[in-house]
Amino acid sequence: MTPGRGLGGGPGSSDDDAIPVTVLSGSLGAGKTTLVNHLLSNAGERDIAVLVNDVGAVNVDYDLLSSDDLPAVGVAELSNGCICCELRDDLERAVVQLADGKEFDHLVVEPSGISEPGPVARQFINGPAAARYRMDAVVTVLDTPQFLDAFAGEGTPERRGAPTDAAGDETADEAARPLSDLLVEQVEDADVVLLNKADLCDEAALAEAEDLVRALRPGVETVRTEHSAAPLERVLDVDLYEHRDDPDGDTVGADAGSDDQHTHDDHGDHDHDDRHGHGEGHDGHDHAHPDEVYGVTSFVYRERRPFHPERLAAVLRDLPASVVRSKGTLHVAGSDQRLNYSQAGPSVRVEAVGPWVDAMSEADQELYRANRGDGADWHDEWGDRHTELVVIGVDLDETAVRARLDDCLCTDAELEDGTGVDPAEWLPERTDEEEAAVVSLA
Ligand SMILES: Nc1nc2c(ncn2[C@@H]2O[C@H](COP(=O)(O)OP(=O)(O)OP(=O)(O)O)[C@@H](O)[C@H]2O)c(=O)[nH]1
Fold first, then answer.
1. Which of 252, 265, 394, 440 gets the highest tally of CB atoms within 10 A of its CB?
2. Given ligand 1 and candidates 33, 50, 83, which is best to mutate, with the most ligand atoms within 8 Å of its CB?
3. pLDDT digits over 213-232, tens only?
């Protein structure tokens, strides 16, 4: 059993000054960053610090969260790895540094969508971070329609596991596991589950999703949300992590509670290898990382040349199913707007978030630079205009996806003569400075 705060004698902090930690969880594109934005925008008296960990080499979530409009007291980023595995030491360092550097009263950790939340949470129970922090809750954000697609009609959702051969043994391709296994895991490890994207579900679907969630995690708190807009008191300072009932009915620390269910070892670490059939436990650091286990890969697409609006819209509406998630910044011909792009499964959103600096008047550019410093990445021809996309998928054909995006770039002739297309036909225009404009492409 892993002792947590208040369980007597454990390494977890018992200091009332310990900073509560909310570990978020949820599939790629479920709405975690939307939740962090919501928490920051409605923080009131709370001073919230955020730690973000993204899948790709570029931390899009960090960029979104570092916006000057959001009152995060501190934002730290860890990219291109998994904070439950290879970036574990980095996480410890980052959270201790955060605690040293700033005054804040709550830490929200947003691991990547392919992280298992249990091992991340346990780093605040064991290890150096435990002296400064205490786990408040694991909050899992569900893309409810996706969750229903994966499990509706099943009694209790189950892990499907690695492919097996005729004899029922795991095949050589044991590393490949369906992402639905991770969904099960993320619900099982949750203290609070947000049934997000409720706007895309009817009442019966939401009720079914609640039943499925409770089958996986009896007694878990559930909250139906649209755009992750949960009441803050249901998510922060809930102190649910340590008062989870274990399957035998004893009220004990969450780690102890889930030991029985999840084959945790004596150190409270989540032995996700055993579950995945990969041998070594988590503490050994030599387990398979979630990206390997679930066959998830990613790449970053960078370009200065603008996209042709119509060709790009056609490609984004028809991405191959292997692209699970893509997001980032788009530079589209004919628009002076910096466009945030976000695709999760079948849904594609483009949001205008304000003009490129390059599109501003000289005077505004100077003012902008005086306030925010010189843009480090200024291009002679394109200024700050650029495309930077993270593309995440399973069995992803990077070359093919890159080629499709390349085909959308404007030709020299189109740059010279214009595209002949009114971008307003599909691009959002931001008219009100306060409000971002959004279009859904699919
Ligand atoms: N229709 C609908 N869209 C939503 C809702 N919540 C979030 N979205 C959209 O879903 C997309 C993904 O949301 P994010 O908050 O970036 O998801 P995430 O979980 O942080 O994604 P990763 O960090 O990549 O795993 C964005 O385009 C959101 O605007 C919702 O309740 N309804």
1. 252
2. 33
3. 988 888 899 999 999 999 99
